[in-house]
Specification:
heterodimer; A: 259 residues; alpha/beta; Rossmann fold; 2 domains; nine-stranded mixed beta sheet; 8 helices; 11 strands; B: 601 residues; alpha+beta; five-stranded mixed β-barrel; two-stranded antiparallel sheet; 19 helices; 56% helix; binds flavin-adenine dinucleotide
């Protein structure tokens, strides 16, 4: 079973994000970066499939600046076989379409039965790249996947996906793009032997020119700002319950204007 | 609350910029490693600590181990963690490739244990004991013992312990009475009692392997008659199944803190059927056991620094949020109260903690590096590193332990009344850290070890080497204008230490042995402060060097903060040596001559 895992390096959830002075982005100094948590589910699932079929390969593909190698190495230490790192100023901060374009181009030289994307990246939260990638490659996509079964002949995949209030079971031919959702699995930790082995595994570095592409961004980020500070709540005290209910309804109607 | 408990940034600084551990990779033994593998190990340890250990910190304190039907039950996360440590190669990390280890330097694994210990000290001790026990078998045991026990310990299936203490023999291990009776087969029959044995029994593992001190029947009395045995809780019968080996838990102790790890009383051979397997030669047990004890002493030092680190970050967080009072000369009662971190006295408490945590950690890692270097060098070099390690071990165990207690106390103080209540973790840290001056040789015993043995061994060779190491750091710092005044202060202290030491040695050589060792604990305190000041000066030098480069704002803040904390240590802590030096220069025998009867009322 051959899996291609698209993996993004993102700021750790513990990082306190600050917007830079001109509002063009965030302050990157001092940020600790980690593998996007949804992509960790992907790595784990890909490893499990390889283990189950006792054959195959797990390739990790990542776009971003030099520091992304750390994320790729971590995935290799978990057990992935090799990495492809697209590192080019022109795409490192690309929009979802540019990312999808790049991933599609880079996947051209890689054999796969399945492509994993995270359901979303926790930094910009677009949740678009996977869908665009499937479209560009003209293969099916199954989103928000929490369970995967691959048929013995590796021709079809059956997935459970989260839907409002329940689960949906979907079948698709392979290859396809799957986007991993929380609940898919418990990602393993890298092991020390894995860390030693990771050092010797190949990471292929590519530029945009190597892929023969010109970025075609669809989106322009104009400005970043921090959410306004939350206003203190109102307390209604010292009243009878009916009176409280009445006052709250009034406040919801005339002040908050939500009903 | 954030749940910060360690600074990975600081660990990297210490390992890479102060100790330059990457130099180790020039030696064959470490040549497969690189900065990258070291950093990945740290990051992975951090992830395990944060996701697996930290969430159970309070729960393991509130739900102590229980003892039912002869079995000790521990929190389920213990099993999960031990299995992860087995699977992930953490127990065997230092071992050689032949023994299925990863040949990671001790300095790196100790840094990882610092991370585990800061997240959840109780949980962190299980794998440490496993490694110590396996390493002891590996170093001194027969091939058969190695085959039979090491793989199961390294894989996390069997717990290892160190079983020394008996009701009548704690500090004084020469008084051990547990008996080993020779048989015609390749085992001895063990009979006796052990107390306070950490992880001595629990249900997170399939078997427990005690590395036990006992006395072969007819052996000479005192330390010269103590031997080392492997005594498993269960042994293999003829068909290869595990069956009971007549080792029974007779009690589980209830402790002040560090409650997630059980300590038990063991009774061996009640039915005359407890098999023990001799490790190495008869009557050499204590010297073998010192390998595990010395490793464990550094582990205690780093464990204390780890708890103090967690307490520091918890208190730092609180002081940035809590508002109370106004600036001293702000007389406007309606002005908004300031954050408590804005009070100088609170900043002092934070700096106190930071200087102790980072100074202690640095000293322990320095010792670990000496151990790594002693392992890969030969001849004079090897003996130099071994001597420095031996000399500094009592200080690296005791300074973090004793000062860690003070540090956590100041952390608790930062929270005022909340520090005393269990909504915040400080009260637990305060209880947890209190074990460290006691186990693995109490502070008193460490003082005797330093002054009575280590300082004088081989004609004070280790002591002279230490002075040389400190002096070479001083001469580097003297070239840096900003550090020169501090280097000079340390030179002054080193001169005083030399004088005090020679004065005490004169006392010894004139036969006043009691007077010579009377205040050895205070001597250890003095020695510890100076050793940590040396480490701070090394950190100051490394930080100054980094500040010459073009740096990001956060890096610049880090290094400036480092240098300021170094200055704090010199200006507020190093001066505490004055009283000690004065005391240690006097010879009045006051405590030795203070009769019992004067204590009465
Ligand atoms: C939580 C915990 C875990 C432990 N884990 C283990 C373990 O895994 N394995 C194990 O074998 N033991 C273990 N111990 C035992 C521990 O090592 C001993 O408690 C310790 O060595 C002190 O011995 P003691 O309790 O008998 O105290 P004592 O030896 O009675 O000492 C009491 C006091 O007298 C002082 N004192 C004693 N002798 C001298 C001397 N010669 N000169 C000056 N002062 C002296 C000591 O410094 C101390 O302050 C553990 C203990 C605890 C509390």
């Amino acid at each position: 079973m051959k899996s291609l895992v698209c993996l993004k390096q993102v700021p750790d959830t513990e990082t306190q994000i600050k917007v830079n002075a001109d509002g063009s982005g965030i302050v990157t100094d001092g940020i600790k970066y980690v593998i996007n948590p949804y992509d960790e589910f992907s790595v784990e699932e890909a490893l499990k499939l390889k283990e189950k079929f006792k054959a195959g390969e797990v390739v990790v593909l990542s776009i971003g600046p030099d520091r992304c190698v750390e994320a790729i190495r971590t995935a290799l230490a978990m057990g992935a076989d090799r990495g492809v790192h697209v590192c080019d100023e022109a795409v490192n901060n690309g929009d979802p379409f540019v990312m999808a374009q790049t991933l599609a181009a880079a996947s051209g030289n890689i054999e796969y039965d399945i492509i994993f994307c995270g359901h979303r990246a926790i930094d910009d939260d677009f949740a678009e790249t996977g869908a665009m990638l499937a479209e560009l490659l003209k293969i099916p996509q199954i989103t928000l996947v929490t369970k995967i079964e691959v048929s013995a002949d590796k021709k079809t995949i059956t997935c459970e996906r989260d839907i409002e209030g329940g689960k949906e079971t979907v079948e698709s031919p392979l290859p396809c793009v799957v986007s991993s959702q929380k609940g898919l699995n418990e990602p393993r930790y890298a092991s020390l032997p894995g860390i030693m082995k990771a050092k010797k595994k190949p990471v292929d570095k590519k530029t945009f020119a190597d892929l023969g592409l010109t970025p075609d961004a669809k989106l322009v980020s104009k400005n970043f700002s921090m959410p306004g500070s939350r206003q203190a709540g109102q307390k209604f005290e010292g009243m009878e319950p009916q009176e409280v209910a009445k006052t709250v309804v009034q406040a919801l109607r005339s002040e908050a204007k939500v009903i | 609350m954030t749940d910060k408990f360690v600074s990975i940034r600081n660990l990297r600084f210490l390992l890479h910029e102060v100790l330059n551990i990457e130099n180790l990779t020039q030696f064959d033994h470490y040549s497969d490693h690189s900065r990258e593998t070291f950093d990945l190990a740290l990051d992975t340890a951090h992830k395990i600590a944060r996701n697996l250990l930290l969430p159970s910190l309070q729960e393991m304190d509130k739900n102590q181990p229980t003892f039912e039907k002869g079995i000790v039950h521990v929190h389920p996360v213990v099993k999960e963690f031990i299995q992860e440590c087995g699977k992930g190669g953490w127990i065997a990390a230092n071992a050689s490739y032949e023994a299925d280890g990863q040949q990671l330097p001790f300095s790196v694994t100790t840094a990882c244990h610092f991370i585990f210990g800061a997240a959840n000290y109780s949980a962190s001790v299980y794998p440490l004991l496993m490694y110590g026990a396996a390493h002891l078998i590996e170093s001194f045991g027969s091939d058969q013992l190695k085959r039979e026990f090491i793989p199961s310990i390294f894989s996390g299936k069997w717990q290892g312990t160190m079983a020394l203490t008996e009701p009548q023999a704690g500090s004084s291990l020469g008084d051990i009475q547990t008996q080993a009776i020779p048989t015609d087969e390749n085992h001895f029959l063990i009979k006796g009692q052990k107390i306070f044995i950490s992880a001595g029994d629990h249900d997170a593992v399939e078997n427990v392997v005690h590395l036990m001190l006992a006395r072969i029947k007819g052996a000479p009395s005192g330390v010269k008659g103590v031997s080392l045995f492997v005594v498993p809780k269960k042994r293999r019968d003829e068909s290869g199944n595990l069956s009971p080996n007549d080792v029974n838990v007779s009690a589980l102790y209830h402790k002040l803190g560090y409650r997630g790890a059980p300590i038990v009383q063991l009774s061996m051979g009640e039915n005359g059927d407890c098999h023990g397997y001799l490790v190495g030669d008869p009557n050499k047990g204590l010297s073998y056991m010192f390998q595990m004890m010395n490793e464990a002493r550094l582990a205690v030092g780093v464990g204390a620094a780890a708890i103090a680190s967690a307490a520091y970050y918890a208190s730092l967080e609180y002081t940035k949020e809590r508002r109370q009072g106004r600036r001293l000369f702000d007389k406007d009662p309606d002005s908004e109260p300031i954050r408590i971190i804005d009070h100088s006295d609170v900043r002092r408490m934070l700096l106190f903690q930071r200087s102790i945590v980072e100074g202690s950690l640095s000293l322990v890692l320095q010792c670990c590096l000496y151990s790594d270097m002693a392992g890969v060098t030969t001849g004079d070099q090897k003996s130099k590193f071994s001597l420095l390690l031996d000399l500094l071990t009592p200080a690296a165990k005791t300074y973090p332990s004793e000062m860690g207690v003070m540090s956590v106390s100041q952390g608790l103080q930062c929270l005022g009344g909340y520090g005393f209540c269990d909504e915040f973790p400080l009260e637990q840290f305060y209880r947890d850290i209190r074990i460290h001056p006691i186990h693995e040789g109490s502070t008193g015993i460490q003082g005797l070890d330093l002054l009575g043995r280590k300082v004088v061994m081989h004609d004070s060779k280790a002591f002279v080497l230490f002075l040389d190491e400190v002096c070479s750091t001083i001469s580097v710092a003297c070239e840096i204008p900003d550090l020169k005044p501090y280097a000079e202060k340390l030179q002054h202290e080193i001169n005083a230490l030399r004088e005090v030491t020679y004065g005490l040695m004169m006392l010894a050589s004139s036969g006043h042995n009691e007077d010579y060792l009377e205040d050895s604990t205070l001597y250890l305190e003095l020695f510890g402060i100076i050793a940590v000041a040396w480490q701070w000066l090394k950190q100051g030098i490394a930080a100054t060097k980094q500040l010459e480069r073009k740096l990001s704002q956060s890096d610049q803040d880090f290094y400036i903060g480092k240098i300021m904390t170094m200055k704090y240590f010199f200006l507020y802590e190093l001066i505490k040596t004055y009283g000690l030096i004065e005391r240690l220069s006097e010879e009045d025998g006051l405590t030795a001559n203070f009769d019992d009867k004067f204590f009465a009322d």
